[in-house]
Structures are given as structure tokens and as C-alpha cells.
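Entry 14. Structure prediction run on the chain below.
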Amino acid sequence: MRALPLAEAVERLQSPYVLEEFSALGGHPILVVDCRSPTSLAAASLARADVCLTELACPSIAIVDAGPPPPLLDGFDVVVSSELDLAPILDVVARAPLAAMTLVQLLRHNAGLTNHEGLLAESLAYSTLQRGPEFSAWLAGRPRPALAAKSAEPAVLTKRDGPRLELVLNRPEHRNALSVEMRDALVEALRLAASDATIAEIVLSGAGPAFSAGGELDEFGTFPDPATAHAVRAMRGPARALGACADRVRVELHGACIGAGIELAAFAHRVVARPDAFFQLPEVTMGLLPGAGGTVSIPRRVGRQRAAYLCLSAVRLDATSALAWGLVDEIR
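Output returned:
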């Protein structure tokens, strides 16, 4: 993929055919623009290009340097400082152009929306991708899971100590992957907490070596149909339940915080991480996008462009970087 100089990119964004040319179906599933060379551009052309960036059916990436901010910078989906940062994005977009397109369109759409509005849009987009060819290919490449013995332990441990409620994700043998069982137990506990004004603090943590490795992959693809899956998420989504009492929630993170493991945590008023915590949003590589509220919670903490970078690159972010970005509030 050739990076276009800014002047050339602005010129091509004037075309009435640009939305088809730069799209998952038009041969150019990503627009990369090199903004490192100063250039003078007409105001009218910049205005048209700015509008077009909000409408593109593909991710737009700006490569910048340490100089003054170039024109149009806020309109790009991702901003990187080198080809090294660009490389993993190109790889992910090449593997899943439809998911990448849907992800950036959703992030643009969700900017400024309420929790309810953003979660509704996320669920609809996620349901669409669940029947897409990229997710189907990912599923086909996975071995069929063996039936696992069901644990007799509660999926979420609860402990009330006066005004404090402790919730512990309790499937350490699965790195606290968010299964249907765990989802329902967490939603039930959070709903009870939201309705009890005497609970002043809710502390959410995870047992074992990781806070949560994300969704339970062995359950992926077991939904009956996209419409029913959307209805279930709308009723039983833990993001909505957590958001209802987020001002009282502190999340304590350690080890793997992948997918839902950071998407849900990011809704909380206070997020504390151990030094060993790391963060990753790999859903686009599966032909999906964050489906546990991440397109709402993550941008509010780190901004739309950094959220898109995490999703489109699938890179791991360490605790120190997460603190600098605002994804977590404290390391201890």
C-alpha cells in the first residue's frame, strides 16, 4: 500500500467516486496519507476532504512527524509516527477489510453518543459481522472445542462488607474468559448493586493469573442468529449494567486484559492496574469488532484515534503505556 502525499490525497478526495475507490470492495481497503511534508492547500479543497474522511468506507491513516500538526489531522481514523507503527495495521486490514471498515465507521458514529446509543450501534454492527465471510473463515480455521466439565464454583464470587461489594471473576482455569455463564452472573450482581443505594463502592477483580482474557472463544459462533444475538446483548450486556453504577466501581486489573477484559473495565470510574497487566483488542483479526462495549468505553478514555489504533493493529499495550494514554488511572 503506497502512502499518498497529503496534496495528492486531498486531490483524490475531491472525486465523486472516492467512496467506492477507497473501500473494502473497491480495491483500496485503506487510505494512508504521508503528512510529513509541508504543503499549501486551498481552503475549499481541505473542507471537502475533511467531510470525505468522515464518510470513507475504509480506515484512514495519517503518518506525521514531530512538527506542527498538518491539516485534516482530526479527521483521520488513526495517526502514526512511522511506517513501523503502520505495519501491523496494514496486516490486520488486509486480513479483515470488512471488519476494519465497520470498526472505523462505528467509532466515527459513536463519538458524542450516550452509553445507550453507542452500545446499541455497537451491537448491531457486531451482529452484522457475525454473519460475514471474515468471521466465518476465522471460525472454520479453529478446531472444534472439546466439551469441558462445568465447574461447581460460582462464575462470579460476591462478598458484601458493609457499604463495599466485592465481585471476583472466578474462572481462573480459563483466565476468566467471559462465558455466557459469567456474563449472566456479572449482570445479575451489577443490577443488584445498581438498585442498592447503600452500596457505596463496588470492586471488580479477577481470580488467578489474569483479570480476563476476553470472550470465551469456544462459545464464539454458537449464537442462533444475528437478530437474536443482538436482542440478547441489548438485554443481558454487562456493559449496560456496569455503566448504570460506574461512578461507584473500581476495577483492579492484572495479567491479561484482552477484549472484554478491558472493554468492560474502561467503563469504571477508577481503573487500577498491576505492573504485569497488558491490554489488547484483537477482535478485528477475527472478522469482528469489540462487542463488550469497547467502541464506547475505550474512546472515552484514550480518544477515537488511539482506540482505532488498538483495534486495527491488535498490538499489546503495557501498563505504563496504558497509564500514559489514560486507559488506566493508576499502577500499583
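The CA atoms of residues 23 and 57 lie 5 Å apart.
Filed with the rest of this week's runs.
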